[in-house]
Specification:
Blueprint (H helix, E strand, L loop, with lengths): L1 H33 L8 H13 L1 H10 L4
Helix pairs in contact: 1-2, 1-3
Length: 70
């Protein structure tokens, strides 16, 4: 049972590690590719997107890859 919990925690750590890296990229450049109006917003608004981006990074990365570049 301890091995299963350890494997789960490692997978969860990898998921959130990738999520943190993606969230910072999304914070700087990625959000503007999905929503052009975010360019006009302040950094505080983008900062509010970080927690959600951290959790939903697989969906947002797919959205970034399939969206047209602005």
């Amino acid at each position: 049972m301890l091995v299963i919990i350890s494997i789960f925690l490692v997978i969860l750590g990898i998921y959130f590690g990738i999520g943190i890296l993606f969230a910072f990229y999304f914070f700087i450049k990625g959000a503007a590719k999905i929503d052009p109006l975010i360019k006009e917003s302040s950094w505080k608004v983008r900062l509010l997107l970080l927690p959600g981006t951290l959790i939903t990074w697989p969906f947002l990365s797919y959205k970034l890859l399939t969206s047209k570049s602005v």
